[in-house]
Specification:
seven-stranded mixed beta sheet, PyrdxlP-dep_Trfase_major, oxidoreductase, 2 domains, alpha/beta, PyrdxlP-dep_Trfase, Aspartate Aminotransferase, domain 2, three-stranded antiparallel beta sheet, 12 strands
Length: about 525
């Protein structure tokens, strides 16, 4: 071992230990054991002082709380430490590569966050008079302009709060268009590889869902099967809901023929825009025959993702559907953009189907998305799509000799799909493989989806990842595969070993969830 001028070792040397020591605290250095806040908080004290309220009359109609709230109280440093330590147990895109397929967990540039906190954006309120929010309305209009420009569409509904909410918006516009034309079709066609929200949305709006088969050789929609379904239900088709690129990570090469067949049936083409980040700047959905498509701003334009929101799912609409865009929407006025909020303000030809949400959408997400667009420019957005596809294919090529590709070695789009054939006879399942990834410091990829592939493992590295991070990820998965093939099942069966909590009984957790903390019974004193 080499020494520096002060006689200190310059390398760690052999740091292996022959045993795993137990600590009194339960901590392992900076890996701190964090109890529930109920287990160490004090129910009789609080870290915040409140003045007693003046006398008042309760207006809850007898529904006020009868017992104490029993929230634990912590001193301010205790509260800060608790939530910081909890945050260290949460995997995040700021901690490492997040390979969830079809979820696009990409880097959120801090520039976007700074812009969203600017005065006038960060402190805006939806009930402010319109005269005080002209800048915000102009920003929404500018973002809407670029969304329509990139997608080749005529109108956009900005208010939907997320992808599924956007799906509902697009399909409600389609339903309104059919009603205006005096039609009442009952069927929506959905490919078998679709996101689960697609058939759920159609069913919610009262449609019958008819599945379309995929081609066995490449996972794309079988055009001939589609035409047979259209003929079988002639005159009763409302729309098709199709994702392109699809959930197998493949581009639907016959999308124009699919659109033509749907339009000839007096139906509409709804495109699930979950994977739009693969084709921004490369193809315009409107040119491909799409009538409506939601855009997940978190997936395509880097607004924050996860945690239940706030999200944003604008819906672009073709010329045929533009009149039915919901309130509120922005109209070009003589003195700039005007926010149209009520039916009384409508002009000839405007036939909104109603309203999707109380206010105007998620302002913070609009600011972040536009900041991302303007900082990248058209060439940067195009490159982001190209890099997303390049990175996914880099992972595909790096693993295809060891992991099994269900549709051959065809180039993928922004995500690559593997199945579990390579694990056959190893005693290791898809779930085991994913749990072992946690020990290696990676969030698992999307598992068991799409359902058209047995033991699916869907990986999306996103354009945010460098070649170095992809090389380490590929090398890690190759090592796991070789361990499985070499019969090292212990590495998988009990994984994860190094996470704050070991593997859960997920079936029991789902069927018998514990939703309320109960104080444990006091331990009996030893005699």
């Amino acid at each position: 071992m080499s020494m520096n001028t002060q006689g200190r070792p310059t390398s760690a040397g052999d740091t292996s230990v022959s045993y795993t020591p137990k600590t009194f605290t339960g901590n392992r250095a900076l890996d701190m054991e964090e109890p529930l806040i109920f287990e160490f908080g004090h129910f009789d004290t609080t870290g915040v002082d409140f003045d007693m309220p003046d006398a008042f009359e309760m207006e809850l109609g007898g529904h006020e709380r009868k017992a104490a709230l029993e929230l634990p109280g912590l001193a301010e440093p205790e509260a800060m430490r608790h939530y910081v330590r909890l945050s260290r147990n949460n995997y995040a895109i700021d901690a490492g590569l997040y390979p969830l397929g079809s979820c696009t967990m990409k880097h959120n540039p801090r520039l976007n966050e700074k812009m969203a906190r600017l005065p006038g954006f960060g402190d805006i309120h939806p009930l402010q008079p319109l005269s005080t929010v002209k800048g915000a309305v102009e920003l929404i209009d500018t973002l809407a302009h670029w969304l329509m420009t990139m997608t080749g569409t005529t109108a956009v509904a900005m208010s939907p709060k997320a992808g599924a909410h956007g799906e509902q918006c697009g399909m409600m516009a389609i339903k309104a268009a059919h009603k205006a034309a005096g039609r009442d079709p009952k069927i929506v066609l959905v490919p078998e590889s679709a996101h689960g929200t697609n058939p759920a949305t159609a069913a919610l709006l009262g449609y019958k869902v008819v599945s379309i088969d995929a081609k066995d050789e490449d996972g794309t929609v079988d055009l001939e099967a589609l035409k047979r379904k259209i003929a079988e239900h002639e005159g009763d088709i409302a729309a098709i809901m199709l994702t392109n690129p699809n959930t197998c990570g493949l581009f639907e090469r016959e999308i124009i023929e699919i659109a033509d067949a749907i339009h000839k049936a007096n139906a509409y083409f709804y495109c699930d825009g979950a994977n739009y980040n693969a084709i921004v700047g490369k193809a315009r959905p409107g040119d491909l025959g799409v009538d409506a498509m939601h855009i997940n701003l978190h997936k395509t334009f880097s607004t924050p993702h996860g945690g239940g929101g706030p999200g944003s799912g604008p819906v672009v609409l073709s010329e045929r559907l533009a009149p039915f865009a919901p309130l509120p929407f922005i109209r070009k006025g003589e003195d700039g953009p005007v926010l149209v909020e009520t039916p009384e303000a409508l002009e000839a030809g405007e036939q909104p189907f109603g309203r999707m949400t109380a206010f105007h959408g998620q302002m913070g997400m609009y600011v972040r998305a536009l900041s991302y667009m303007l900082s990248h420019g058209s060439d940067g957005l195009r490159q982001a799509s190209e890099d997303a596809v390049l990175n996914a294919n880099y992972v595909r090529v790096g693993l295809q000799d060891l992991m099994s590709l269900p549709f051959g070695e065809r180039p993928c789009m922004h995500e690559v799909l593997f199945d579990d054939t390579f694990l056959k006879d190893t005693g290791v399942t898809t779930l085991d493989f994913a749990k072992a990834m946690i020990d290696e410091g990676y969030h698992p990829m999307t598992m068991y989806f799409p359902l058209v592939v047995h033991g699916a493992m869907l990986i999306e590295p996103t354009e945010s990842e460098s070649r170095a991070s992809l090389d380490l990820f590929v090398a890690t998965l190759r090592d796991l595969v070789m361990s499985a093939r070499n019969g090292e099942t212990d590495r998988f069966s009990g994984a994860p070993y190094f996470s704050p909590r070991r593997r859960l009984d997920e079936t029991s957790a789902a069927r018998k969830p514990v939703l309320k903390w109960e104080a444990p019974a006091p331990a009996e004193a030893a005699e």
